[in-house]
Known about the structure:
Blueprint: H1 9-29, H2 33-40, H3 44-53, H4 59-68, E1 71-78, H5 87-98, H6 102-124, H7 128-135, H8 142-149, H9 156-165, E2 169-176
Antiparallel strand pairs: 1-2
Helix pairs in contact: 2-3, 2-4, 4-6, 5-6, 7-8
Amino acid sequence: MTRIEDLHADDREARTKLRLQLRDLRRQAGHTVAEAAHRAGITPSTLSLYERRGDNPHVVNVQRNARSLNHRLVLRPDLPHNLPTHPTAAILHDLAEQTTEPHLQDVYHRSAVLSDLVAYRRWLGITAREMSAAWGTRPDATAVAGLEAEVKEPLLASYQRYARALGGVLHLDLEPIPNEQPEGATP
C-alpha cells in the first residue's frame, strides 16, 4: 500500500471504516482471506495486507473485493457548488447502467466520478499545477495529469485528495447488489 499524506484526517478514517466493513462482510459470508481473494481476483497477500493495515488501496482492488461480497463501492463527491453532470460523465454513467459486466460498471463509475471532478476543477479555474501545489506533489503536475488521464490504476486516497483540493469531500459508500451472484461464484 502506498502512503500518501491526506489533506484531511477524515479521509483516512473513511478508508479505515470501508476496510473494516469489507472485512466484516467477508467474515459474515464465512470466507477465508484466500477464498475471498480468489473470488475478487486479487492475491491473498494483497487482501490480507489491506484487511490488517491497508489504508490506501487501489480503487480497482476495493471494487473487486466489494463485488465479490455482493456489494459495490460508490464514490460520491460532495463539492461546495452543485454543477450539472459533465457530458462525459453522463455518458459514462449511462454506459455503466447499460452493461451487465461488473468490471466495466466499476470502470465507468470511476471514470464518471473523475470526469465530474476534472470538470469542476476547470470550472473553478484551477490549473493542474495549482492542483499539484494543493496536493503537495511535484510542481510539474505529473501526478494530477496522470490521475486525470487514467494512465494507471488510481489509489483511493488520490480521489479523496482531489476532492479535498477542490474544497469538498469524497464519500466512500458500499451498496448491496440485489439478486446477484458474487464474482467468481458458481450458481
